[in-house]
# Entry
Amino acid sequence: LAIFSDIGEAAIAVLKTPEASAKATIAQEVAALWHKGHLASSTQTPPRRPARPPKPILLQPRDMPKRRKAGTQKNRIALLHAIAHIELNAIDLAFDMIARFTKELPEHQHHEFISDWISVGKDEAKHFTMVESRLQSLGSFYGALGAHDGLWQAAEKTAENFAARLAVVPMVLEARGLDVTPSMIDQLKRHGDNQSAHILHIIYMDEISHVAKGTKWFRYLVKMDKKQEVSYFQELIAEYFKGAPKPPFNEEARQKAGMPISYYQIFQ
Ligand SMILES: [Fe+2]
# Structure
């Protein structure tokens, strides 16, 4: 088991672990250490980009092959590979959130903020591990295909702005996952792949709580900075997010995540 003196150091160790399943393992170890109270809260500047394995090769989003329906095993592997890559990014995003932004909150909020993103990071590590093992049972593995770098590009773009990071990553990109996952689950079931459908269902349920945590801390910042929440959110999206959030929106799941329709109805 890895030994760290504080959470900043531990979060950076996750970010600097290149191999994917090793990253998932260390993320879960750090979460266990945090829950046992073995890590002091602290912040340190994380690397601009996390360490990653040599494969998958990272492509521009526009160079990715178009995602196809879940009818063939090849297409299901492509879908699961894309999801594994999202989950790996999501591990890094959770620990980057802790290392980079905790210091911007008043000290009495540090423990709750860190605990929230530790729980997200732990979920993402579980997701990655489930999807990776499903890929292997379908005869593939993470790294077998190309993957796109859009998520980390969004992270770099918002590295200097805490509110923008919350608006773009959990509240737009992860919320997008809530919009598109139910139809993926239906397609997988329709084609008899109940195991993959089950994994996506677990991910879907967990992601509601991740969007909720992002929304909660966004609202906290809004209050702290005395801004108007919906217009501030939309300003940040206009400045930091390429394009606009795409309808149709999953209103029910977004509502469960504490995100009212006023945040995105302008994009409908
Ligand atoms: Fe996830």
Q: What stands out?
A: The chain has a mean pLDDT of 95. Strands lie at 58-59, 147-148. Residues 87, 90, 123-124, 127, 203, 207 surround fe (ii) ion (CB under 6 Å). The CA atoms of residues 18 and 51 lie 4 Å apart.
